[in-house]
Automatic annotation (TrEMBL):
Activator of Hsp90 ATPase homologue 1/2-like C-terminal domain span: 14-152
Coiled coil segments of this chain: none
Organism domain of life: Bacteria
Organism: Sphingopyxis macrogoltabida
Name of the protein in its database record: Polyketide cyclase
Annotated SUPFAM superfamilies: Bet v1-like
Similarity section: Belongs to the AHA1 family.
Xref: InterPro entries: ASHA1/2-like_C (IPR013538), START-like_dom_sf (IPR023393)
Length: 154
């Protein structure tokens, strides 16, 4: 059965879950891959615990200022196994009204000596899912995951 409100993407990364986790859990590492280059990423908050804030900013090439990217909240965190965050809440479970409401379920599964990194992105309805798809979900998230692989497979 297909869920029309959900988008998924995955990739086998030739690095152990601990390395992928380190790329996710250390702000300086996350800044290197979270947004497709040449757009720059700045991590303003990465409080990896349920209710902890997740705030990133982005800056287009040549721009002076960073702009909003993600203002969210972590719902579940299991080191080296799973991260769940949403954009409909901010730090401390504060309700938010994001431009695109989503919940992302990211898993890190050991496989063939590497990590199967998978993202399930849930939207509030099929229209929002289609909008995210049209905005380049697979290209953007796929490029970011490729950058994650490049960082961790060194």
């Amino acid at each position: 059965m297909t869920n029309e409100s959900e988008l998924t993407i995955s990739r086998l990364i030739a690095a152990p879950p601990a390395a992928v986790w380190n790329a996710w859990s250390i702000p300086e590492n996350l800044e290197k891959w979270w947004i497709p280059a040449p757009i720059e990423c700045r991590v303003d908050m990465l409080d990896l615990r349920p209710g902890g804030g997740f705030v990133t900013r982005m800056r287009e090439e040549g721009a002076a200022d960073f702009q909003p990217h993600v203002d969210g909240c972590f719902l579940d965190v299991v080191p080296e196994k799973k991260i769940v965050f949403t954009t409909v809440l901010t730090e401390g479970w504060q309700p938010a009204e994001p431009w695109l409401a989503l919940t992302a379920i990211l898993t890190f599964e050991p496989q063939d000596g590497g990590t199967l990194y998978a993202a399930r992105v849930l939207h509030k309805n099929p229209d929002d899912s289609s909008k995210h798809l049209e905005l380049g979900f697979h290209e953007g998230w796929g490029t970011a995951i490729a950058q994650l692989a490049e960082l961790t497979e060194r």
